[in-house]
Amino acid sequence: MRALFTLTPSEAKRLIAKAVVKLPQVQEAYQNGRLAVTNGTTNAFIVEELLGVKLKKENYTAGVITDGRPCVSELKQMIKPYLFEHGKRVDTTIGEFIKQLTARDVVIKGANAVDSEGNAGILVGSREAGTIGAVWSLLTAVGATLIVPVGLEKLVPYIPTDVGIDHFTAAEGGISLGMPAGLFPVVGAQVITEIEAMSILGGVEAVLVAAGGTGGSEGSTTFMIEGVEEKVTKMVQLIKEIKGEPPVGRSRRACSSCDKACAYLQRN
Q: pLDDT for 150-181, tens place per residue?
């Protein structure tokens, strides 16, 4: 049996979040080890699914693409990342938290790009490469798991390896209409898109068949799923429950209080 449906970006984030919290390694890390759910809009959905709470998801960001340009989030409204140890949220920084990671622990970090090979790309706005720069080497060294939830609205042909922050600064002869950012390539993480999510949640095979839309459906993705009738029917029912998920709101730092180099305001 087959079915066809379209997911808006927010609906896709909700679907992916439901799948991520069901992963055995996520539950094990949350209950018996350490789990970091770093800032990001998809990760805000994951926190909601994990804890049964509601977040103002636009405030669970550090950097954001909004108003048609890359920007930095409003610091005064920013929600600190949810960091868990043995099922309880701990009040510490991500830098201190990751020093305690072991091979049984999990870090969840969203992405800005994903390719068909399962490689991810994360925009970074500082020379220290943000959260991913802080955790990548330590994760690799200790053998902890990095899970990257990312919707296929962010599908790109490949993840380039030569996109650095300095390429877009006036000092180097570059231009950035918005906050300059580099792209941090991530290879070998466990990437969870809508396709993996539907396999986890319903045991169906999914194929991305179309993308885009208008009138509020910009960034949408259209999928065909296939499987035995019972599984397809259950998945369609879940999709119906997800339909209508409101879009993530807008939150960014006011240009008047931003110190980032930005050609949008002719600030070098």
A: 999 999 999 988 877 666 766 666 787 788 88
Q: What is the dihedral of CA 64, 5, 53, 152, to 10 degrees?
A: -30
pTM over 0.70: yes
Please state the separation of Cα 179 from the chain's center in Å.
19
